[in-house]
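Quick one: Probable cobalamin biosynthesis protein CobD from Natrinema longum, structure tokens please.
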Amino acid sequence: MLTTLAVIGLAFSLDLLVGEPPTPIHPVAWFGRLVDGLDRAWSTDDRRQRLAGLVIAALCPLVPAAVAAGAVLAAAELHPIGGGIVAAFLLFLTTSLRSLLELTEDVVAATDGSLERARKDVRGLVGRDASTLSAGELRSGAVESAAENLADGLVATLLAFAVLAPVSLPAAGAIAAWIKAVNTLDSMLGYPSKPIGTASAHLDDLVMYLPARIAAAAIAIAAGDPLALVRARQWARVPPSPNSGWPMATLACALSVRLEKPDVYVLNPGGELPTLADGQRAVTVVGRAAVVSIVLAVVLATVVSEFGRDLEAYWQVLATLNTEHATGVRPKWP
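--- reply ---
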């Protein structure tokens, strides 16, 4: 258990001190290049393209997962604490908090002085055409992305890692890498216009079902408004994604603002688009929600560790009883 806490602590210390590694040396970018090479017309038939996409979705995430597990195992063989250090580095690489908050804050601040800069910077957060967006719409895009990426970029990998780490650090590193790969596949291939990305989109929807709703609950708690999660239910299913609407709608309700992607969805339509102050508060709330998520991860890791200890004690008692029965020695009960 102490190893798990140390690993999680080291991972987020790296994030706070270093932030995202440069793209050329980031393993997620390397995986992206692999996906980019597979994103092509394997057939002129949509059905066969979907079949190719199914193979890609099934096999590609296994590559970084296997590399991650192998790296932790190899490091543990070299030094007793090596496995923990590599596992922490993997968690650091598969989560993102500081960069998300900083970019969101930069876009929000730029809307107060230079819309052109805000339109340029927001491309790092959203895929929509920002050339004609107003200041409020730019802030909306940044706030939406901060909420959605809390689930994609932090909660999903962190909680899965925390559940498996007390059992097996190699498995924890593998699941973190696998989930990040699934997210990357969806972001690159999961568009309605791409039959090859259909399987990746469905897989991501399945993987993100719980993390999106946990992120929404964390946002509501961080905002000091737990009922925001309840109010958000009527808009959470408005976006095309079955998951991203939950954290976005919850943040909209918690801030009492309208979040809008032109011609696609409107969340909390009774509010106004975020002001500068609303955008700044959104960054604070998402940061606090990240802390809530980390606390939850620690609690989950503790529960798994205690359950594992109790289960081990149970099997030891059972093994002792079986041995006594086999040897004809009656157990001495107190």
